[in-house]
Design brief:
The protein is α/β, with parallel strands linked by helices. The protein has helices spanning 2-5, 10-22, 38-43, 60-76, 121-135, 150-159, 165-170, 187-201, 234-240, 272-293, 322-346, 357-388, 403-434, and strands at 28-32, 52-57, 89-94, 109-113, 139-145, 203-212, 220-229, 260-265, 295-305, 308-317. Residues 30-126 form the Methyltransferase type domain.
Length: 446
């Protein structure tokens, strides 16, 4: 109902309003009640000076979802010209926004969009005291529904259902916009709450909103306050009030299940995985070429007629042995796989990859690892048989007759096992990329 009346939707307008404030010179931001991460994700689309962004929420399900989205977006947008290039670290915390945790001290800017109405009023005041009194953010942006605007929203909703919406509205009181809302404030109530916090903690306040207009009744659909600090630097305030250092015990987020749920650090060397794949490609391609080109022809005396020897020319080629054919196929496919992955990595800024790319890459890497391992081990078995023979089966060894063929084959095996080592490391890294531990109070779309 609410979103249908506004274009763009209120949820998007709130995010854009916050982003305009964030474009100032700040290097760190924490989103209290980050929910599905709409604000954090939007920050990756705008050029800002932010280097660290964090989110706090009580819903592990929401944090798991936003962790995957942020991880995918950050890894995929490594292009030097990408808007999120400045962001070096992203952290998600599972915990209540009304609990003090010293790890949240030191952030420049905080946001809390459509969150406080999901808690009791005294908890909303406690949140303000914790954030403004202890964390001492330079700027805090808080938004909440304007209760006075609900009559317009309900009238619009009833217009399509009732012949006389005015009579229907008069016969019932306005409802909250969401069944989970514990309260919804009028403009006067919101200003009273914000002003008391500002006076208590020495902040200035600026009121605004989105949806509607300030000079027309009943104001904005979403009312927003921006708190700005003009006094003690955060470090001085923390020392003055003897707050806990970040390395010591803390309230709220200190328990084992409430540690950082997801941390992404901007890769210092974006070429590391590309280099590993390039080395794996070269090793597998070398093994393939050496084995394919490996052949030797020798002439043997098989009989003597009188004094004339009867000679026979014998050829040793890889395709005479099925195990070596499998070896060539396996190494060839692995080299192609790594070449494709290198191209995809170099061109990734041209595409908008989604989260499924990471499990697909990990699965392909592991399949190629298994394929390469099978091919190399099958070839090793046949190489050992060619070198030593098998007396029980009465198979003679051939490497004493085709020395050059066996030596080149051994070189191909060495190259294949080098590729296998690189593929093992690549697969390990690919699996690590899938590890995004589960990173509520919020509902950013109401």
């Amino acid at each position: 109902m609410v979103q249908a009346l506004f274009s763009p939707p209120l949820s998007k307008q709130r995010v854009e309003y916050a982003v305009q404030q964030i474009k100032e010179c700040f290097t760190s931001l924490v989103d209290f009640g980050c929910g599905s991460g709409s604000l954090l994700e939007s920050l990756l689309e705008y050029p800002t000076s932010l280097e660290t962004i964090a989110g706090v929420d009580i819903s592990q399900k929401s944090l798991s979802r936003v962790a995957k989205v942020l991880h995918s977006q950050l890894v995929m947008k490594l292009d030097p010209d990408a808007p999120c290039r400045s962001i070096k670290s992203t952290i998600l915390y599972d915990g209540s926004i009304t609990d003090f945790d010293s790890r949240l001290c030191g952030f420049d800017l905080g946001t809390c969009l459509e969150v406080i109405e999901h808690m009791e009023e005294d908890q909303a005041s406690l949140f303000g005291d914790i954030v403004l009194g202890f964390f001492r953010l330079r700027v805090l942006i808080v938004s909440t529904p304007n209760y006075e605007y609900n009559v317009i929203l309900q009238k619009s909703n009833l217009t399509s259902q009732e012949d006389d919406p005015e009579e229907k509205i008069q016969s019932q009181s306005c409802k909250f916009r969401n069944h989970d809302h514990k309260f919804e404030w009028t403009r006067e109530q919101f200003k009273h709450w914000a002003s008391e916090l500002a006076v208590r903690h020495d902040y200035s306040v600026e009121f605004g909103g989105v949806g509607g207009a300030a000079d027309q009744e009943p104001g904005y659909a979403t009312q927003i306050v921006v708190f700005r600090s003009g006094i003690l630097p955060k470090d001085d305030y923390i020392r003055e009030h003897q707050l806990l250092p970040s390395s010591g015990p803390s309230m709220g987020l200190q328990s084992g299940e409430k540690l950082a749920m997801f941390k992404w650090s901007y890769p210092r060397n974006r070429w590391s995985l590309v280099v590993l794949r390039l080395l794996a490609f070269l090793a597998a391609a070398a093994a393939t070429l050496v084995m394919v080109l490996n052949k030797q022809t020798k002439t043997f005396v098989v009989a003597t007629i009188g004094t004339t020897p009867l000679k026979l020319a014998l050829n040793a080629k890889f395709h005479h042995t099925p195990a070596f054919v499998f070896f060539v196929i396996a190494n060839g496919l692995v080299s192609i796989h790594n070449l494709v992955m290198i191209m995809a990595d170099l061109l990734r800024s041209k595409f908008d990859y989604k989260g499924f790319r990471f499990p697909m890459v990990a699965i392909l890497d592991m399949l190629n690892l298994a394929l390469l391992s099978g091919g190399a081990n099958a070839a090793v078995f046949m190489a050992e048989l060619g070198k030593n023979g098998n007396s029980h089966a009465r198979w003679d060894k051939i490497c004493d007759k085709f020395e050059a063929y066996c030596d080149r084959g051994a070189g191909a095996l060495v190259a294949s096992f080098i590729a296998l080592a690189f593929m093992l490391l690549i697969s390990f890294i690919s699996i690590l990329k899938l590890v995004s531990p589960s990173s509520h109070i919020s509902n950013n779309n109401n």
